[in-house]
Amino acid sequence: MVNLCQGRTVYKGVIPVYLASDALGGAINLVSNVNQSNALRASVEYGSFNTVRTALRGHYNLNDHVFIGGEFFSNYADNDYKIRTPDPELATTTAKVRLFHNRYRHYYTTMYVGLTNVKAADLLQFDLSYYALDKQVQHSPTTMLTPYGGIEDRQHSLIPTLRYKKKWINDRLTVDQFFAYNVVKNRVIDTLQGRYNWLGEFTPRGYRGEGDHPSYAAIDMTFFTSRTLLGWQWNKSHQLWLNNSYNYTKRIGTDVYGKQIETTQQPMIELPAYYKKNTLAMGITSQWFQNRFETNFLVKNYNYSSEGLNTAYQVDLRTADLHRTSNNAWGWAIATKYQWKETTSLRFSVEDARRLPGYSELFGDNFFIASNFDLKPEQSLNFNLGIDQHMGRFEYSLHAFYRQTKDIIVLAAGNPPLSLFVNKERAKGYGFEGDFTFKLTNQTKFYSNFTWQSIRYGRFDQLADQWLKGNRVPNIPYFFANVGAESKYKAIFTPQDGMTFYANLNFVREFYIQPIDKSMEPGGFLGLFGSSKGEVKNIVPDQTSLTLGMVYEWPVQGWSMGIEVRNLLNQDLYDYYKIQKAGRSCYLKFNYKLN
User: What DSSP assignment string belongs to 105-168?
Assistant: First the structure.
């Protein structure tokens, strides 16, 4: 199922062959504009918590076939917003505290040169990018129980990429090749001899490290990606596709304070870890009955291997604990679309798919999340059904799904304060979602969307997990919705200018950061009413966030200005692990365009 948006395509259900992805349930394909004119874009934004964002992008065509360009982006924020005091004892006297070690700094720049519409290539483009990230760590990514005042995470990388596209044999054969290679230089620092409390007060102590273990780690993460797409236009109604996506990841580093292998006294991070995965997709796309009916049949081969040291359950690590895992499996999918009327289309798909573990799920982060090289791929049988319809000023999209998953990957608690990704035997899910748009006038429209889903653990063979059967999989909201409006006005101060006002209200129903028994869930229709009977610390409460904004544009002069207020009602907001987000915040942005 496909939703088209400006600059991107949203797939719900089966992923098309040309993406060759191992994602489950959908994907977003960001589409860049290949045929670009000479242009210069610049923007600067300032907002709450000393947030400053800048961007600069330029593209220049040297002639009809050669182009160059580049862009720069920076993002800085103190992120020193107030939160409800996480420490229960301190909360009896202090309701709120301010984050004091949460700064974020990020730079990114890229330069590119390319050829277009030449004899040997429709597109040949080389990019060279660089980014640097420097962030202070205020707390663990999964809990705010302990504050940190000296832990820092820094990384940078130089990233060359190459893209080649060409259509041959009267445009019947399509070749699209992409390569990327880079080494991320990462440094994790935790050498402070003491602890902070949530008031920012420091207490010295006689040993290093605020976390579980001190660290002064220098880690190299090597990445290589190759994506190869071949397409053959068999005739006007049938297209054959073959796509292969290969990813290689290696981690190795040093750490003078790191955990050591018991037999050799070698820091465990010096032992290389590897991950290789390959997804091969083959399929045929066909159009029938004057293009009113479209079918996609595809098969996929999933192959991966990994090697590394598990660090979750033991303090004394041995070389013999090196884990090697490999897996090879086949999957398949069938997707159909029927254009019932000019304004109505129906979609159906069924898929037997795999989601291979991500490298971060296998490797962990060498600090808060432990490595687990015993992870297996998720195996999922998915059914999707949807309808899209336009009725004058009103249009809607309704979509339903059912999914059976084996070896679902979830984040679980290990030896405190560590977490790790593990497989759970079975999960079942079903749900439905809708998108609606109503154009009141040519200038004003209303829109909304919602998702309701029930994703629960299935039967377990392991005795320790049998109590989970029927419980919701944690850290996944089961209902969320948005309602918004947008209104545009022209010729405000001059005949050429314009102004847009918009508002968006977001709601997330309470969900759980740890499994709770089904009997303790709220009653009512689809669980949408009432409150849970579980422990408050395991529940992320209902959340409502209101955003208001305005954009003033003067296209003739090439500039625009925007003002946005987020979380206008200053409500308590949280992420999937009940990490507190910022309260009310305001942002002012200026854009300039020369074209």
Answer: EEEEEEEEEEEES-SS-SEEEEEEEEEEEEEE--S-SS--SS--SS-EEEEEEEEEEEEEEEEE
